[in-house]
C-alpha cells in the first residue's frame, strides 16, 4: 500500500505563485476537472471528519492530486493532519469572506499529493458576516473553480449542521458522500439531509447527486447493523458502498498523532477500509486507472510475517490471555 512522501512536502507555500509552481512540478494523471465530494451529515459523531481525512489521504496515496477543504469551525480536519489551530494562518474563513484566493491559502501535508485548505474556529463568523452578502451561497463554489484543473479530487469536510457553511459546500460540490452509523437514529437523520439535497437541487445546484452512503463504526456481528444495512440497500440500492468502515483503535488514535491512518498504521483494518473506499470511488470516476498495485506473492508473505510478529508483540492483554488459555477453554467446551 503506497504512502508517498516528499522531502519538501512541509515547505511553506506562502503565495499563489509558489503554489502554482508546486503543481506544475507535480503533474497528475488524467486531470480534466476535479470531482468535488462533500462529506456531509448533520448528525454528529458518525465519523464524518475521519472519513474526509482518510478518504482524501487514500486518494492522494493512489498518486492523485487531492485537496481536503476544512469547512467545519471545529477544524478537526486541520488538526487531524498535524496543523495547529492558528488564527493568523489563511484558511477557509479568509477565502469565503474574500480576503484571499484559495490557491494562496493551501497548505501541503505529509502526503505529497494531498493539500489542505485549513480552518479555524473563526470560520463560525461566516454564518453571520455573510447573512446579507450577495451570492453568499456560491462563495465556496467560486473560490474552488480555479483549482478544479489542478486536482483529481476535492473533498469537503462539512460541519454537523445545516447552516450557511454546509449550504456553500453542497452548492459547490458535484456529489455528497454520506457517512452514517448502522443505528435507528441515523436512519431518521438521513431523511433531513436528503430533503436538504433536494431543495438545493431545485434552487441552487441542479447537478448535485448522492455519491453514496458509507457505513462507519460498523460491527457486522450485530443484528441491528444487518437490519440497517438491508434498509439502506433497499432505499439507496447501489449507492450504498460495498466497503464498510469498522471500529478500529488505530483509526481512533491517528488524529492525536496528526496523521491520517494510512501514515499512522498502513496495515490496520481502518487504513485498508479507506483504501477500499477510495478504490470504489476511483473505479467509478476514473475507470481503467490502477489505484493501488497489488503486492507480489513474496511481498504478501513478508507483510503477513511482519503482521503476525507485530500481533504477537503488541497483542492486547485479553488476546494474550485468550491464547494462553486456549487449551483450557477447549477442554471446558468438550
Envelope shape: globular
The SSE order reads HEHEHHHEEHHEHEHEHHHHHHH
* Average pLDDT number: 83
Instruction: Please report which band the strand proportion falls in: under 5%, 5-15%, 15-25%, 25-35%, 35-45% or over 45%.
Output: 5-15%
CATH superfamily of the largest domain: P-loop containing nucleotide triphosphate hydrolases
**Number of distinct beta strands:** 7
Query: Within the CATH hierarchy, at the fold level, what is the topology of the largest domain?
Result: Rossmann fold
Architecture (CATH level 2) name of the largest domain:
3-Layer(aba) Sandwich
Q: Quickly count the helices.
A: 16
Kindly, what is the distance between the CA atoms of the first and last residues, rounded to a whole number of angstroms? Answer: 43 Å
Main structural class? alpha/beta
**Helix coverage percent of residues?**
40-55%
Radius of gyration: 21 Å
Poorly predicted regions: 1-13, 308-334
Main beta sheet: strand number and arrangement?
7 strands, mixed
Q: How many individual domains?
A: 2
What is the CATH C level class of the largest domain, in words? Alpha Beta
